[in-house]
Design goal:
mainly alpha, about 0% strand
């Protein structure tokens, strides 16, 4: 019994990447932007797993574990920055942070 074709995995990864990119470009809330970046990282990991399944190698799954570690680090640093910005400006709206320019 065989699973779905790897091309379907790549198609889903492309759709997730497009949704994440749209979220980064359209949203103004920093938390939603952070979640959109997470979606884009997961899309890259899914593409790696689909490519690894296509060639019958475990390299895609190993790369996905590295992507998950990178995503966890990105979330921890990002949430720390969001808390700092919320304390300073009282909002998490990305447009209000233009005061940070020198």
């Amino acid at each position: 019994m065989s699973g779905p074709a790897p091309e379907w995995g790549l198609a889903v990864a492309a759709a997730l990447l497009a949704l994440g990119l749209a979220g980064v470009l359209v949203r103004r809330n920093v938390i939603f932007i952070l979640m959109s970046v997470e979606i884009m990282l997961n899309a890259g990991g899914l593409a790696a797993v689909a490519a690894g399944a296509r060639w019958g190698q475990a390299d895609g799954q190993i790369l996905f574990v590295l992507v998950l570690a990178l995503a966890a680090a990105e979330v921890s640093v990002g949430l720390g920055l969001i808390l700092l910005l919320h304390r300073r400006f009282g909002t998490v709206d990305a447009d209000r942070f233009s005061e940070m320019r020198g």
